[in-house]
Amino acid sequence: MDKDYLNKKWLSGDLTEQEQKAFEQIEDNELLKQIVNKAPDFSVSNFSEAQDYEALKTRMQSENRFNKKRNWVTPMLRIASVFVVGLGIYFLFFFNNSITIESTIGEKKMVQLPDHSEVTLNAVSEIEYNEKTWEDKRELTLDGEAFFKVAKGSTFDVVTSIGKVSVVGTQFNVKNRQDLFEVDCFEGQVKVSYGQMITSLLPGHVYRIANGKVTSDINSDRKKPFWIDNMSYFKKAPYHEVIEELERQFGITITIDPNDENLLFTGGFTHTNLKEALESITVPLKLVYVMETRTKVSLHKSE
After folding, report:
1. N or C of the chain: less Cβ packing under 10 Å?
2. How far, in Å, CA of 59 to CA of 57, rounded?
């Protein structure tokens, strides 16, 4: 039977039983039903005239064109989304090869870099570098304190929040703690960049920036920092620096009189015995310590 004839009779509700069966076989009958159901102004009672059906037929053809277009666009959008996700994964794995290594309270950790340079982290310290680009650019960031044995090669940069240290092949220590930046050269030559200032250090020289103030000093004839051998040593250092380092090594909290925070301290303490460490930093300043709990200590002046 003619498709338009059946559609018109269905809209007017005049299909015979045989015509109803033929109508159900029409390919677009479901679309016609959906349009009528969704459009309140296209009720069956309003389609008694042929011109009303012609308007609906035009709408159906428009719907078909839209569906064909949508059917073509949807797969393309899916392909595009898969491409974008794949591209993101590619960049994540092949260009973001950032490696972060951390040490915890009381821990010292030795790390071998891709060029066989060695880094030893002091307690509560962190380095980060890109393994993929290391051959072309030997650079890492440091937060905390670390001792470096740099293999000879291209320039080796240690970047901190305060200053940058550049070398070719040498041994040196870098400390970057809050407002303190300190570089200690043990072998070779070190170049330190701070703002627009560039300073070269030879073995035995120490460069220090504390609260924006730059100083330099001469260290002992040691070939490595004290902390490598489980000792912390200070020379005319503010007392709060000593306390903070002891807290990092033993995982304790120490409270002191605010008036004592900037006392200057020269001396050291062991990392292996808390009692001995506390005595080492209190007796020279005529202070006493009290173990409030296993992890809380208070210091005050002796009577």
Report:
1. C
2. 5
